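Hi R.,

Here's the input for the GLP complex you asked about:
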Amino acid sequence: MDIISVKDYYEMSKKTCEYVVDQVNKLDRPVLGLATGSTPEGLYRQLIGQYKEGHVSFNHVTTFNLDEYVGLAADDPNSYRYYMNEKLFNHIDLPEDRAFLPNGDEEDLAKECRDYEMLIRDSGHIDLQILGLGLNGHIGFNEPGTAFDSRTHIVELDASTRQANARFFPTMDDVPEKAITMGIDTIMESKQIVLLVSGEKKADAVHQLVNGEITEEFPASILQKHQNVTVVADKGALSRL
Ligand code: GLP
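And here is the predicted structure with GLP in place:
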């Protein structure tokens, strides 16, 4: 696991953007795995900037997001589809039909999980997966206790995760209880992974990610076994290493 230490959130976003742009320009038909949450917002702003300045095009790119809430329609401002449209997709030339998220509003969610897996497989797998890190070590929405061999599945969100994400919703009761997420095994099949982490509140999680034992109780710990993981972290996030 490579660790790139940067000064702050802005530098984390900038460094990662440079890397993503380099890969997108280099690869023939790049497949990107994307994440939501507050951490990648700066990266998306930077990517839009690079696109507008003509340094990169996304017209040959396919993207797969990690996760989506169950029960929120695509036009719900709290859905991850809405987030991605607002924060990235609406501002770049990524073809609309190449930007995939699981659909948490499907009736047959088991089928949706299978179909999502198939789409990823048919795309030839993810070249570069962007990850954030939950305070409890979750990646995507794979909460502690998720099997390392899991594929795309439905999860019950941890009380702590609902609490952490409640800031985006009018009240705690509005935070969905379930989500659909790529599984840990699905994520581990990505050829490269870049995990972004910023701020002191994540310092314990980063410590466990890097030095802790590999256990399903801390899902991100499995990344220690991946051949090509880069953690881009700022001083605050690295303060416990
Ligand atoms: C959310 C998302 C994750 C994200 C994590 C951290 O629940 N499902 O993909 O990485 O929590 O969020 P943040 O970046 O806001 O700290």
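One thing worth noting: DSSP finds seven helices and ten strands in the chain.

Cheers,
M.
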